[in-house]
Amino acid sequence: MNLRAALAGVPVWPGLVAAPLIALAVGAMSYGPAYKQCHRLAEARESFAGAVSVAAQAEDPRLRLDRAVAANDWDQVRIVQDASGLSPEAQYLDCPFGWDLDQTERRRMLADGRLGILAFAKAGQVVDYIEFRADKARFEAVGEIVVRAEAVFTVEPPSNDGGPFTLRRAPRSP
């Protein structure tokens, strides 16, 4: 009996079932972590934009960052309005399949100064960050490191020309 005859006797259906399962497992292992990070960034950006919009329409237009973003435990935040100054050698997250900004779009937004970052830290170490559209929300407390208890901002709606929402540090409560 030769090899060809031996293979002819082997049923084909296990291979037809196993091949797609193996492909699915390899795809999940390859894209799973990227999907989680991309989805988290997109969700955080949308949540932040929604919270800013709601605050601008509220009777008391204050936005507390600790309630507006679902960042990890943090004690201070650094606001980077224009993240274009980041290192050109930085590795940019590439989100395939429309999960979030792809590498080209993220680089274009950075070059145009339309991508901002809220970097959350605990004991001086960055524990989380979210990206926000700097052409939709403009902080006046740029570059400052703001402690959690004081990360409260008044939100002004965009002007008639469709500019960004303006976020100013709220006066301290007595």
Structure write-up:
With 174 residues, the protein is of the alpha+beta class. It has one domain (12-169). Strand 7 and strand 8 form a beta hairpin. The protein is built from four helices and eight strands, in the order H-H-E-H-E-H-E-E-E-E-E-E. It starts with a helix and ends in a 5-residue tail after the last strand. A four-stranded mixed β-sheet has the order 1-7-8-5. Strands 4-3-2-6 form a four-stranded antiparallel β-sheet. The mean pLDDT is 78. The radius of gyration is 23 Å and the shape is elongated.
Secondary-structure blueprint:
Elements: H1 3-8, H2 13-57, E1 62-64, H3 65-68, E2 76-80, H4 103-111, E3 115-122, E4 125-133, E5 137-139, E6 145-147, E7 152-156, E8 165-169
| Class from secondary-structure proportions | alpha+beta
Q: How is the largest sheet built, in terms of strand order?
A: 1-7-8-5
Average predicted confidence as pLDDT = 78
Biggest sheet architecture: 4 strands, mixed
Show unreliable segments: none
Query: How many DSSP helices?
Result: 4
Number of domains: 1
The amount of helix comes to 25-40%
Strand content bin: 15-25%
Distance between the termini: 93 Å
SSE sequence, one letter per element: HHEHEHEEEEEE
- The number of E-state strands comes to 8
The value of Rg in angstroms is: 23 Å
Molecular shape: elongated
